[in-house]
Amino acid sequence: MDKAKVIEAYRRGLITLQECGQILGAEKSQMDDLVSVDVRSRPLHPNPFAVADNA
Question: Fewer Cβ neighbours under 10 Å: the N or C end of the chain?
Answer without folding.
Answer: C
